[in-house]
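Sequence in, structure out. Go.
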Amino acid sequence: MNRLRAPHLLALVFGIAFLYLPILVLVLYSFNASRLVTVWGGFSTRWYAALLQNQALLDAAWLSLKVALVSASLATILGLLSALALARFGRFAGRTLFAGMIAAPLVMPEVITGLALLLLFVGLDAERGFWTVTIAHVTLTACFATIVIQARLVMLDRSLEEAAQDLGATPLRVFLAITLPMIAPAILAGWLLAFTLSLDDLVLASFTSGPGSTTLPMRIYSSVRLGVTPEINAASTLIIALVATVVVLASLLIKRDALSRT
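Output:
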């Protein structure tokens, strides 16, 4: 087993510190007793108690969670269908255009996408709120889910599927009994990625939200412009804990599934 050399270890430490030290500082100062976020006043959980009394922030967090859950689920379904079309249907008319349209949100600036969606909803005279924000997030995240699932489908060993077809299984039966369980980790990974991107989004929500549909990133951004409060640190820490818990649980499920197949 090769050991890490000093330069490699130093680069690893600096890389991890660059990525996670700001998050650790935020978590630490969420337990700050002082009202000033830059001055340490001792350990306290008062801001978590204050957060429970901040109804506007709680409503924004609940709305963000609902939007993330619904948009991630819809994006994963669309991503699965798109990945199947690209990976299993071979060459078909419009395939290049279809693949390009799926990949477009990856390179399109969110400001442009948000403005286009805003003009669409205004042209349709649609009331902006929960569903317009959800549709905007599906537009952004479906491409990520598609790429993750398509990569798994391309690398999938099709011998089991072909054997099941030779034994008389219908295409739907083959997909439900063999293909779907084999790509389940990729589907879960795509869902988690879509969920995280939706929970984090600020730009699209700013363009497509309406009165009474302020998401948590929008609420935090508007509060930060007036000055960061310890309650925002507490809310951010809870979101970090939630996402970390979901990721760890998903990793354990994927690992257990992999071990059961070996």
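Check: The chain is about 80% helix and 0% strand. The chain has one domain: 55-261.
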